[in-house]
Amino acid sequence: MTTPTVTTTLPDAVIDAVRGARRVLVLSGAGMSVESGVPTFRDAQSGLWEQFDPSQLATIEAFQMDPPFVWAWYAWRMQLVRGVDPNAGHVALAELAGLRDVTISTQNVDDLHERAGSSVAAHLHGSLFDPRCSECDTPYEGEIELPQEPIERLEPPTCPQCEGDVRPGVVWFGEMLPDEAVETTESAVDSLETGDVVLVIGTSGLVYPAAGYPAMARAEGATVIEINPHESEVSDMCHHVVRGPAAEVLPQLVAALG
Ligand code: BJW
Predict the structure, then answer these.
(1) Is 106 close to ligand 1, i.e. is its CB under 6 Å away?
(2) Is there an atom of ligand 1 within 6 Å of 122 CB?
(3) Which contacts of 44-48 are long-range, i.e. CB under 8 A and separated by 24 or more positions?
(4) What pLDDT shows up at residue 44?
(5) Distance from residue 16's CA to the centre of ligand 1 (Å)
(6) Over 19-48, what HEC string results?
(7) Which residues contact 181 (CB under 8 A, 6 or more apart)?
(8) How do residues 200-244 score in pLDDT, each as one tens digit?
(9) Are 150 and 90 contained in the same domain?
(10) Does residue 109 sit in the same domain as residue 236?
(11) Which domain holds residue 243?
(12) 23 C-alpha vs ligand 1 centroid, how far in Å?
């Protein structure tokens, strides 16, 4: 495997690759939403939660041990996401769909791609906004109290069917991803052809199975392009790495195509 070209500005090779692509598969992660004001997953611990490892909070074990503590973290993040807007990167991807056949598979649990006007094919790790019962899995459609300020503990709502605790509709470590999201993403990867492009945006490439998709796409013949200001676990297997923030690089890319 050849080493990637790494640039801090948008190179012509990247513009030409996207211009020549029939299909563009977008694999986005938490860095996509940074310029909207949503911290990345690994930076999401602040204030009340900063002494906790996020990979330990994002587990069913943590929720079962202390539901109000974990629910308060998610209620705060729901409130945070509700209060921010899609950034220029989200908007650029929505515009790209007018120029190319774009499929978005995101690890993000926010709804900022959709609010920018994109259709999201797969939310691999679920959504902050699809709460369900932790006992009987019934979707919860009742009121959710969202704190205006971070608070340490907040009782989760109670399931009207079985009185179980309601949990966030996200995928925690050790849990299966939604079948449909995995199937949609893997079929989008399988149908890539030489000349198609994969944009890997704002992910650390630490969490599987999502972290495996860029390499699978490369094996199908696609040109794999990373947009991330920092090196990630998948940087080395990309063809091109653009070391910049998504909200700057993506608008430049879409403008260059026009
Ligand atoms: C910018 C930027 C800017 C900053 N612009 N970029 C194979 C090998 C080893 C382990 C496993 C394996 N298969 C499965 C596992 C186990 C596990 C796993 O992967 N563990 C690893 C940690 C090793 N996976 C699972 O458990 C998954 N389930 C599963 O596979 O089921 C089957 C199974 C079960 C058990 C055993 C084996 C198989 C489930 C994973 C669920 C992940 N859920 C979370 C929490 C969601 C809820 C919540 O948000 O609280 O999803 S974890 C967290 O990480 C969240 C994210 O979606 C996910 C990925 O994070 P992401 O998006 O990459 O964010 P960050 O913060 O890590 O990185 C941000 C990046 O942005 C950085 O690179 C910055 O540089 C960059 N950035 N500013 C662009 N402006």
Answers:
(1) no
(2) no
(3) 44/77, 47/150, 48/72, 48/73, 48/150, 48/151, 48/152
(4) 62
(5) 30
(6) HCCCEEEEEECHHHHHHHCCCCHHHCCCHH
(7) 105, 122, 123, 124
(8) 999 999 999 999 999 999 999 999 999 999 999 999 999 999 999
(9) no
(10) yes
(11) 1-37+85-125+177-258
(12) 25
Does the beta carbon of 245 sit less than 6 angstroms from any atom of ligand 1? yes
Closest residue to atom 9 of ligand 1, CA basis: 208
Question: In angstroms, how far is CA 152 from the centroid of its own chain?
Answer: 26
User: Which residue's structure tokens are 């019962």?
Assistant: 133
CB 31 less than 6 A from any atom of ligand 1: yes
Q: Atom of ligand 1 at shortest distance to CA of 204?
A: 73
Span 140-172, pLDDT tens digits: 999 999 998 888 899 999 999 999 999 999 999
Report, as residue numbers or ranges, the catalytic residues.
125
Query: What pTM was estimated for this model as a whole?
Result: 0.96
d(CA 28, CA 139): 26
| CATH number for position 145 | 3.30.1600.10
Cβ–ligand 1 contact at 35 (below 6 Å): yes
Distance 19 CA to ligand 1 centre (A): 30
Q: Which two tokens stand for residue 28?
A: 């986005």
- Alpha-carbon torsion, ordered 151, 66, 64, 178, to 10 deg: 20
